[in-house]
């Protein structure tokens, strides 16, 4: 029966620690951005710039 009281006290302590961490992160502004996630899917991915023809032709000559 004593183990139940110990486990109950430990679970309440862990819950309080997580609650305090949550309150701390909210006060620090961790969850302030509500606009960006809703429009992130509308942004285009950045295009990868291709290397110039000079560097690719040099690479081809070296491999031959």
Automatic annotation (TrEMBL):
<protein>
    <recommendedName>
        <fullName>Cytochrome C oxidase Cbb3</fullName>
    </recommendedName>
</protein>
<keyword id="KW-1133">Transmembrane helix</keyword>
<keyword id="KW-0472">Membrane</keyword>
<dbReference type="Pfam" id="PF03597">
    <property type="entry name" value="FixS"/>
</dbReference>
<keyword id="KW-0812">Transmembrane</keyword>
<dbReference type="InterPro" id="IPR004714">
    <property type="entry name" value="Cyt_oxidase_maturation_cbb3"/>
</dbReference>
<feature type="transmembrane region" description="Helical">
    <location>
        <begin position="6"/>
        <end position="26"/>
    </location>
</feature>
């Amino acid at each position: 029966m004593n183990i139940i009281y110990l486990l109950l006290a430990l679970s309440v302590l862990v819950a309080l620690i997580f609650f305090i961490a949550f309150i701390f992160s909210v006060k620090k502004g961790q969850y302030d951005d509500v606009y960006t996630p809703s429009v992130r899917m509308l942004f285009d991915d950045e295009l990868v710039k291709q290397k110039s023809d000079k560097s690719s032709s040099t690479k081809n000559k070296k491999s031959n």
